[in-house]
Structures
1.
Amino acid sequence: MENNERYEKGIHAMEELFSEEVRTGMRHIQKISPDFWDMIVSSGFGDLYARNTLTMEQREYITLTTLITQGAFDQLGVHVQAALNIGMSQEEIIEIIIHCSGYVGFPKAIQAMGIAGEIFKNHDDASRKD
Amino acid sequence: MENNERYEKGIHAMEELFSEEVRTGMRHIQKISPDFWDMIVSSGFGDLYARNTLTMEQREYITLTTLITQGAFDQLGVHVQAALNIGMSQEEIIEIIIHCSGYVGFPKAIQAMGIAGEIFKNHDDASRKD
Amino acid sequence: MENNERYEKGIHAMEELFSEEVRTGMRHIQKISPDFWDMIVSSGFGDLYARNTLTMEQREYITLTTLITQGAFDQLGVHVQAALNIGMSQEEIIEIIIHCSGYVGFPKAIQAMGIAGEIFKNHDDASRKD
Amino acid sequence: MENNERYEKGIHAMEELFSEEVRTGMRHIQKISPDFWDMIVSSGFGDLYARNTLTMEQREYITLTTLITQGAFDQLGVHVQAALNIGMSQEEIIEIIIHCSGYVGFPKAIQAMGIAGEIFKNHDDASRKD
Amino acid sequence: MENNERYEKGIHAMEELFSEEVRTGMRHIQKISPDFWDMIVSSGFGDLYARNTLTMEQREYITLTTLITQGAFDQLGVHVQAALNIGMSQEEIIEIIIHCSGYVGFPKAIQAMGIAGEIFKNHDDASRKD
Amino acid sequence: MENNERYEKGIHAMEELFSEEVRTGMRHIQKISPDFWDMIVSSGFGDLYARNTLTMEQREYITLTTLITQGAFDQLGVHVQAALNIGMSQEEIIEIIIHCSGYVGFPKAIQAMGIAGEIFKNHDDASRKD
C-alpha cells in the first residue's frame, strides 16, 4: 500500500465520521505542521479506522472509552458527534460513560457526561430546525 | 432494587465472564475486606454489567480499552479471558489493541499485545487438550 | 440496605459537603441521565462518604489528593469549597497541595494551588460581606 | 535552613516511617546517584514530612492516595507498612482504598487492596512471633 | 549549599527561561503560599535547571515531553515560549511533538500541536513588530 | 514513500538502537499479530526515528522521558540500553531521571532510577568481560 493510498483511506474515514465544519477546524494543524497532518490522516485514520474486523461503531466504542479514560476531554466532543453521525444513539453513548465510571472513577465520568450532554443538546436543536 | 438483588446480579455477571478458577482467585479480596468485596460485586458488576442497552461483548470492548489506556495490566489478562469466554474472537481482541495504539501510544499497546498473546496461547493449549 | 436508603444517605452527605448552589449545578447530570445521577448519589456519595471509620475531613484529604493526582481540575474547585464547608482551614488545604507536589510533580501542584487560591478569594470575599 | 539541616530532617522522618530493613533497601539508589539520593532525602522527606500543619498520619493519607491514584504500586507496599508503623490501623488503610475506588475506579483499588492484604499478613505473622 | 543559594540559582534559571511578563504572572502563587513559592523556585528550578551535565535546551526537551505526556497543557504554553527564548527553533518543537505522538497517542499530541501553534503565532507577530 | 520503504527505515532505526538479542525478543509480537508488527516498525520506528531535524540522542531524551512519565517501566529498560548503545553516558541518563523527578514526582523517578541502575550494572559487567 502506497502512502498516498493510506492518506486517501484516512480522508475517507474522516468524511464518514466528522461534519465538514469539524474537518475544516482540524485543518489548522496542517498549517502548523504539514508532516504531522499527514501522519494524523494516514496513521491515525487510514491505518486504523479503514481496517476491517471491526465496524465504525465498534471503533467509536474504543475511541470514546480511551478519551474518557485518559481525560482527553478536548477531543471527546468531536467523537461524541462522530458517534451520533455514524448512527449510534444517545442512550448508547450514555451507557458507555456509565460503564466507564466503574473503571475510571466518577470525576472523569461526570466530566464526560457533561460534555456529551452539551453535544446532545446542540444535536437536538439542529434536528429540530430541519 | 434491594442490595441483595444488586449482589445477586453481580455474581451472575461474574459467572458469565470468568471461569471458576478466576472467581475463586478474586475471593482473596473478600478475606481482606468483606465490605469492599460487596461493593465490587454489587457496584462493579451488578450495577454495570447487569444493565441493559449494551451487550456483554460491547461492555468488554469498553473494559479492555480502559484497562489498556490506564495501564492496568494486572487486570487485563482476566478480561482478555472473559472476552474469549463470552465468544469474542482473538482477531477482535487484537484489533481492539491495534485501534488503541493510535490513542494511547505504542508502549501500552505493545504490553497489552504481549499479555493477550499469553492468554491466547494458554487458551489454545487448553482447547487442544479437550 | 435498600437502594432508597443508599440514595438518602448520599443526598445527606452531599448536603453536608456542598452549598445549595453547587448542588443545583450538579443536577444538570440528572437531566442527561437519571440512572447515572442515581449512581453518583447512591454509590459515589451514599456508599462512600456515609460509611464510618473515617471522618468527613479525612475523606476530603483523600478526595483532594486523588483529584490533584489524576489532574481532575474541573472537580477540584467544588471539593476545595467542600473542605472549607466542613471546617478545614486554608492552611490545611495548602499543605495537602504542598505534600502532593513531591508525589505528582510541580505542574499539577501549581495548577491545584491556583485553583485553591481562587476559591479562597471568593470565600474571603463572601465572608467579608456577611 | 542549610542543606545539611534539610537532609537531617529527612533522615529523621524516614526513621519514623520505615523499618531499618526498608531504609537499607532504599539505599541502593544512593549507589546509582548520590545526588538523587540527597534530593529524595532533603526534598522528598525533609521539605515535606518534616513540615508542620499536618501530622504524620495525615501525610500518609495523602501519600497512600496519590500512590494508588497514579498506579505506583511498587512504592505502595512500603507506605502501607509506614502507615502501620506510625499507628494507623488496618481498618483505616482499607477504608482509604475503599474511598479511592469511587475516584480512581475498581481496577486500581483492587490492586491496592491485594497489596495491602499482603502487608497485613506479614505484619500479623511478625506480631504473632513476638 | 544554603537555601538562599538554591533560591538565587532558581531565580536565575527562571530569568533565562521566562519573559518578565510570565514571571510576574507566576508570582500569584507566592501570594497564596510563600512556602510553596520558595519550593518551586529552590527545588523546581534551583535544584533542577541549575545543575550541570545537561544544557538548558536538553532540559526543555525533557520538560516539554513530560508536560505533553501527562496532559499538563496549562503549563505547556509557557514552556514552548521558554524553548523559543533559549534559542530552540519552531521546527525542533514541532518535531518533539511528532515524536511524542507515537508514545502518547494522537489526542495529546494534537492538543500540544494546537497550543504550540498559538505560541508560534504570537511569537511571529511580536517579532514582526520589532 | 511506499510502505516497504517505511518498513525498511524502521528496521534500520531499530538496528541502530537495539542489540540483536533485544530485537529477537521483540519479534514475539510479530507471531501474535503480523499487522501490528508492521505498524510498530513502519509507524513507530520508520515514521518517527528515521525523520530528520532531531538526532537519535535527542529522540531518546524524548522517549526516556515519556516512558518515565507514563509509568511504562516495562519498556524503559530496553530504551536505557538503547541510549547507551547510541553513545549516551550513564550520567546523562541519570540526569534525565533527576530532571523528571520535579515534573512527575519521586515515586516514578525512583522506580526509573532503580531500572537504570540494573541496566548500568549489566552493561558494566559485559564491558568488563570484553
Note: Chain F touches chain A through nine residues (CB under 8 Å).
2.
Amino acid sequence: MNMKEEKMDQNKLTIAIVGGTGKEGKGLAFRWGKAGHRVIIGSRNLEKAQLSVNEIKDLLPPFSKLTGETNESAVKQADIVVITVPYEAHRNILSSLKNELKGKIVIDVTVPLVPPNVTKVQMPMDGSAAQEAQKILGQDCKVASAFHNISYDLLLKNTPVQCEVLVCGTDQQTRQTVLGLVKDAGLTGWDAGPLENSVVAEGLTSILININKKYNSRTAGIKITGIESPSS
Amino acid sequence: MNMKEEKMDQNKLTIAIVGGTGKEGKGLAFRWGKAGHRVIIGSRNLEKAQLSVNEIKDLLPPFSKLTGETNESAVKQADIVVITVPYEAHRNILSSLKNELKGKIVIDVTVPLVPPNVTKVQMPMDGSAAQEAQKILGQDCKVASAFHNISYDLLLKNTPVQCEVLVCGTDQQTRQTVLGLVKDAGLTGWDAGPLENSVVAEGLTSILININKKYNSRTAGIKITGIESPSS
C-alpha cells in the first residue's frame, strides 16, 4: 500500500467521488464538504463535474474544499475513492481506473439492480457488486461497501436521516475508516462484517423499493434495533 | 393444491412447527397458541415434542390448542407448516416430508449459518435456504420465508419485540397469509418480495450476530424506517 499514515488523518481526508454528478454523489459530497473534508466530484465529463460543484457550493459554507475534475484526475489526488455509478457502468469504470486506484480505500456504493424487475434481488456472479469490485481491482485496493440504502434526496437536505448504514469490508481498519466517514456524513453506521456480507446491504435496496411500492412510500430505510446506537 | 378455501380462514389455522422443540419453535408456538391458533409442535422424537408442549402450556391460557406429535403426523394435520430446524438438517427433513407437505404453505425460518464463521454470509448453491426448500419441494408447495432475525428468547416473554420481520415468497397471497401470522405473533412484518429476496433476510442474521459481537449486545434486530408501520 502506498498510502501514507499521516495522510489518513480522518480530519483531513481527500475524497474523490467517481460518477459524483448523480444524486448519490452530490448528496455525499455535500455532507462531507460540510464536515470539512476536501471533496472532488469526478465525472467522465469535466464540465458536468464542475456544474455539480456549483450546485452544491451554494449550500456549503464559504471556503469549503469542493472541486470538480475528471474521474481519473479526481482519483489520483484522493485518499479515499467512492464509486457511485449505475451498475451498468460498474465494471468498465473500475477496470479503466484500476491503476489509479492502487493503494486507495475504495467505497463501493453500487447496487446491482437489474431493470425492469428492480424489486427482485439479482446479484452478479461474484456474489455482489462489492465482491465484483474487489475481483476487478485485486488485492492492491481495500474495498468496502456502504450507503446502499439511503434515500439520497434526503442527504442534500439538512434533516436527520433515519436510515442507518451497513458497512462491509474485508479489512477491519478499513471498515473503521468508513464508519468515520458515515458519521461525518451525519449518519449512523454499523460494522456489518466482511465484504461477502455486502449481498445483504445491496439486496436490501430491492426490498426497500418493494416496500416503497407496496406501502406507498418513497423513503423506506432500515435501522438496527435492540442495541444502543454506536454514535450516540 | 388440495388446500380447501374454508380451512384457510386466518382465525382457525392449524400450524405445524417442524423441529418445534428448539427455542425458535417454542417461541412461535407460544405466540400463536396465545393468538388462538391450533399449534402442533413436531419433533422426530414424540416425547420431546410433548415435553415442549408441557413447558409452553403453563404460559398459555387454559383450553389453548397446543399438542406435540411426530413431525410427520404434525404436518399431515396442518394448513401451514413452519420449518425451524438447524441448517444441517434442512435438506433431509424437507426431503423426508415432501409428500406430506404437498399443497401446504411452508414457512421456512432456516438460516444457513456455516460454523465456525457464522458472522460471514455463506449461502447455499441455490441462493438461500428458502430457494433450496422450494427446489426440494417443487411447485406443489407454496414456500415463504420469515422470522430469520428474531431473538427467540424474546418471544416467550410477553414484552413487545422491536425487531421486525421480512416476509419473502413467490406468491403474493402466501406472503399475505404469512404477514397475518406475523401480526398474530405480536410482530410487525413487511412484504419483502419474491423468494429470491430471502438471501437478504437470511444473511441479515449473520450481520446481526456480527453487530451483537462487535457492540456487545444480544438482541440486535432491524426495523424499517421512513414509513408508517403497516400494523399500526
Note: The mean pLDDT of chain B is 93.
